[in-house]
Specification:
Its EC number is 4.1.1.104. One of its GO terms (cellular component) is cytosol. The protein is of the alpha+beta class. The chain has one domain: Class II aldolase/adducin N-terminal domain (L-fuculose-1-phosphate Aldolase, 3-Layer(aba) Sandwich), CATH 3.40.225.10. It contains seven helices and eight strands; from the N terminus they run αββββαβααβαββαα. Strands 4-3-2-1-5-8-7-6 form an eight-stranded mixed sheet, with helices on both faces. Helix 2 runs parallel beside helix 5 and helix 3 packs across helix 6. It is globular. The two termini are 22 Å apart. The chain binds zinc ion (ZN). The site of zinc ion has 6 residues, from loops. Zinc ion binds next to loops.
């Protein structure tokens, strides 16, 4: 895709997520790798419902602002993931309702916040490690993500929300939506007797793609 097509795709996918309630107000941010090696990102404080393709932020791998409006400060932690996972070409960060609710629970398994009960969670996400709570904008969020970036496709920032990667922006958005729906189901099923997938069933799904 050309840079112009990628810009238009970011606007379209963001608006779609906004209209379906995955993003509200100015919360959340998106980024993707451009053909020239720079990164396209949502500007600071921008609403997913009202992005302008011509004003999206462009930054380099070190976070230097190249063009467009000023990027979200959270783009720093996107770049930490790109630097440590060359297979990642796009990132979605949301403050979506169910994943954020999950991120506020005590006693989460920090290696995997959602014990698998549906095959698509296993195939699309695998595991969801929890990053300990840090103030938004704290540079240690990037450090924590960098440590885990090569091994996981998604992360849950405690008391904050999800960070989800993909091979392109459509893939990252699909992964984020699958993850949000999985969190919704996990909370709906809380306190009920769940038939979790067995280790054998999980192993059988791993590496099958999506
Ligand atoms: Zn955030």
């Amino acid at each position: 895709m050309t840079e112009q097509q990628l810009r238009e795709q970011m606007v379209t996918l963001a608006r779609s997520m906004f209209e379906r309630g995955y993003a509200t107000g100015g919360a959340g941010n998106l980024s993707l790798k451009l053909p020239n090696g720079h990164f396209l990102a949502t500007p600071t404080g921008s609403s997913f419902g009202r992005l302008d393709a011509d004003r999206l932020s462009v930054v380099d791998i070190d976070g230097n602002h190249i063009s467009g409006d000023r990027p979200s400060k959270e783009v720093a932690f996107h770049l930490a993931i790109y630097r440590n996972n060359s297979a990642c070409n796009a990132i979605v960060h949301l403050h979506s309702t169910y994943l954020t609710a999950l991120s506020c629970l005590q006693g989460l398994d920090t290696d995997n916040a959602i014990k698998p009960f549906t095959p698509y969670f296993v195939m699309r996400i695998g595991k969801l490690p929890v990053i300990p709570y840090l103030r938004p904008g704290d540079p240690r969020i990037a450090e924590e993500l960098a440590k885990r970036a090569a091994d996981y496709r998604a992360f849950l920032l405690a008391n904050h929300g999800p960070v989800v990667t993909g091979s392109n922006l459509t893939d990252a958005v699909d992964n984020a939506e699958e993850l949000e729906e999985t969190a919704k189901l996990a909370l709906m099923l809380d306190g009920k007797s769940i038939r979790y997938l067995s280790e054998e069933e999980i192993t059988d799904l791993q590496g099958r793609g999506k």
